[in-house]
Amino acid sequence: MKRRAWLLGTTVGAGALLLGWMALPQRSRLGLASMMAPGEGDIALNGWIKILPDSSVVLAMPRSEMGQGVHTALPQLAAEELDVPLASVRIEQAGWDAVYGNVAMLVGNLPFHPLEEEREDGFGRVKAGRWLVGKFSRELGLNATGGSSSVADAWEVVRLAAATARASLLGAASLQWKLPAEDLKTARGVVSHPSGRSITYGELARVAAATPPGVVQLKDRKEWRVIGQPAPRLDVPAKVNGSARFGLDVRLPGMRFAALRLAPMLRGAPGRVDAQAALAMPGVDRVVTLPAYAGSTAGIAAVADSYWRAQQALNAVQVDWLPPPGSGPDSQRVQEDLRRAVERRDGYRFFEQGEVDRPLRAGARTLEAWYSAPFLAHATLEPMNATARVAGGRVEVWAPTQVPGMCRAAAARVAGVPEDHVDLHVTLLGGGFGRRLEVDYVAQAVRVAMDLPGVPVQLIWSREEDMRHDFYRPMHVARMRAVLGAGGEALGLHIKSAGDAISPRWMERGLPALAGPVDLPDKTASEGLFDQPYEFDDQRIEHVFAHTGVPVGFWRSVGHSHNAFFTESFVDELASELRRDPVEFRRALLRRAPRHRAVLDLAAERSGWGLRPLPAGRARGVALHESFGTVVAQVAEVSLERGLVRVHRVVCAVDCGTVVNPQIVAQQMEGAVVFGLTAALHGRIDIRDGVVQQGNFPEYPMLRLASAPLVETYIVPSERPPAGVGEPGVPPIAPAVANALFALTGQRNRSLPFAL
Amino acid sequence: MARLNVNGAVREFEAEGDTPLLWVLREQLGLTGTKYGCGIAACGACTVHVDGVPTRTCVRPVSTVGPDEKIVTIEGLSRDGSHPVQRAWVALDVPQCGYCQSGQVMAAAALLKAKPNPTDADIDAAMSNICRCGTYNRIRAAIHAVARGDLKSAGLSIQHSDGSTT
Predict the structure, then answer these.
(1) Considering the domain boundaries, does residue B160 fall inside one?
(2) What's the gap in Å between the CA of B78 and the closest CA on chain A?
(3) This protein's superkingdom (chain A) (predicted)?
């Protein structure tokens, strides 16, 4: 407890120092009209909103579309407050000003326990930490799409920017007509007066740009017509006719293609390289040796006038690959080391309450179980790629990325130019899931392009490189211990887990200036454990931070992806030990968590839990988990077919606060179930002597349509501010299925993927 | 110069005969709607029709496609996105990231051509393309919606706990 207070104290203290040093004014995130790129005839009213002559609207878009629907949800916020149809909102990539940074993502990563927040009166540690990190994030302006934070982050600022623009338009009409603004109305991009006068936004824009907005008020939720509607996604038409442009679809005159091979051993390097034969092949321009960029591994790239030729050339290059110093990591050994670390090393205590070490009361008993989860690859369907052109001290990059600012900085570092000499275009992302929070592939593309001045080069990773050189979801193990009283009371919970920290490694790779000499405790390791919602009198939730040497990164739902499996399986074990119904047992421990209870109740009710019997050979399992501010419960119906796990139906209940688009919420739950189930049934990356053993889909299988369960989504109505939906559907599915399998077979799966 | 019949037009290109059709379409002919996902015909992102047969082009040497065989890519499925499969995909908001969807749409179009009223088992067997975003529920529903010829009521409705649906 003391150590934790000291560390947090140091963090907050250092933040205060930094702020004092920089003497930062409180800055509005609305930004200035000059921050938006000027276009033909359009008028910017602030840093987010431009009005076109035809009264359509351009919204500055700082977030990447990777399937989660952000290019629809954010325009919905703007359309609502501007009173324009959703179809008339277009998006344009936002600029580089700090107003476009993602504040919610960083604030959401603070290791505060919900109980602490609840109990805090006035301005305490939680509020001070949030305030400081919020202020720091606003200055940092980290433009990132991750942590299920886009809607939560944009919720105030985009609505405010749109409402401010609307107020200026009303003000302009009021000036022009010499009528009070209160008497004017807006609808479908037109300002009107009861007298019958009307004028379009397009006609008013120029005057509005010089008109102060006056009093700006956001709509009451009762007035919403766009927010909360299942509006069709704006990106869908282009995604069914081949016109959507992903990173791999960038086409530029005179473009060359580069094929990549990194050292087979993680952190290995090319030694002697003989490219003679390759360079003699038709259409081949260059063979480039690449250093290890941004935490990735060193390798080589071959450049040619077609990707196929580049690949053939790459195969013809003779390389002596050098192993990394010392021995390469081995996943089997990592697992043994992590288990030993739990047994022998002190953990960082993320949460402590009561006294877990007290002697057992009469009649009480201890239950203990070990859980583990493997390394996992992201396997976005669009492999890593980027296109770059370097000429005359300027760099232009096209990249499917979740972190455009970090890519820009990485490109500038590699090319040795100032950041403002880098133009970075964000394409659509063929999946992200956290892999595209990394900048390795952009650095490589820039390095290759530097060897062909003025020539645009598209660097394409093969599927095999993508799988063998990922930043993997770290392996974690956990020892779960509970003390149950004679009457089944939940007396104590002691969780001790071990695994790599992700955040400090990621900072070293992408934000080296902010990486410190000492790792601060990384909340992602223990999220979902230290803040688990069940009431146990005594609790100690600790984590031993490991350094396995395996490159690790954020993987959809991050620490929750394994920690929900640990807690929700273990809670099920306790229920079973006490011969209690899993839903009823959870409810009893959630007396102070009404949101969780409501979500659990809804999933139980809709699934027919305890009421509707299933056909013979099928069983239900339940799991409940909060992540990224959203609570999700899932009930899975499972059977075994010829020895294989078959999940038939998943009933999913979700409380994600205010819903901006229920269709997108449902889509994300459906997709998250498949994503999490793929991992639970098949997902494992094995590393032997530093070499990743899986290279393509046959070895790292994906769930396909034939084995995908039917997913039903039910939303708990809420007036809380919106929370994320991209990730929270993932964590509960593995434990829900594990618990169903236990109900079916009496066998408990405590490691992923399931072994039967 | 070799020739291919793509989307109703004869196109000329230069490439070694062992070049997979995928790369000729994407690089020589500029048809980037057909995607690279695995390079070993395991994911289906590269699916096009060759004489009506759904074909994974990442492993199909271009020399094995004759100049008279009719290739249809996602760009050629319809002029204006009006193919019933495309309309159903829009009506049900199928795509998420969208990267695999060209292949999914082409596989579904071929299935429905062969079997206008596919059963779930038919869909299971024909639709083996990988979707990493997990849009499978909506793909199945959209195929059934095309078969029913009823796109308006095709929505997977979302039910709220207060009893309303959207």
Answers:
(1) no
(2) 8
(3) Bacteria
Same domain flag for B93 and B128: yes
Query: What are the residues whose beta carbons fall under 8 Å from the beta carbon of A222, sequence distance 6 or more?
Result: none
Best interface-test mutation with A: which of B89, B158, B160 has the largest number of A CBs within 10 A? B158
Q: What is the ipTM of this complex?
A: 0.94
What would the pLDDT profile of A185-224 be if each residue is shown by its tens digit?
999 999 999 999 999 999 999 999 999 888 899 999 999 9
- Chosen for mutation from A667, A714, A727 (greatest number of chain B CBs closer than 10 Å) is A667
Closest by Cα among A522, A553, A525 to A438? A553
Q: What single-letter DSSP state applies at residue B20?
A: B
Q: Which of A672, A712, A717 sits opposite B160 (nearest CB)?
A: A717
The matching CATH number, chosen from 3.30.70.1560, 3.40.50.300, 1.10.260.40, 3.30.365.10, for A331-375+472-745 is: 3.30.365.10
Q: Which of B27, B77, B156 lies at the smallest CB-CB distance from A306?
A: B27
Domain made up of A247-325+384-460: CATH architecture: 2-Layer Sandwich (3.30)
Residue B14, in any domain of the structure: yes
Structure tokens at A595: 């949101």
In Å, how far from its chain's centre is CA A562?
A: 15
Cβ-based neighbour number of residue A342 at 10 Å: 22
B50 and B103 assigned to the same domain: no
Sign of CA dihedral A346, A347, A348, A353: negative
Tens of pLDDT along A380-427? 999 999 999 999 999 999 999 999 999 999 999 999 999 999 999 999
Tokens of residue B4, six digits: 């291919």
A307 contact B CB<8A: yes
Which numeric CATH code is attached to A22-102+141-239? 3.30.365.10
The reply to whether residue A713 touches residue B86, judged by beta carbons under 8 angstroms, is no
Range of the domain at B117: 84-148
Residue pair A401/A62 in contact by the 8 Å Cβ criterion: no
| Cα distances (Å, whole numbers) of residue A677 to A388, A419, A496, B148, B164 | 37, 41, 25, 30, 29
DSSP 8-state symbol, A684: -
Please check whether residues B139 and B108 belong to one and the same domain: yes
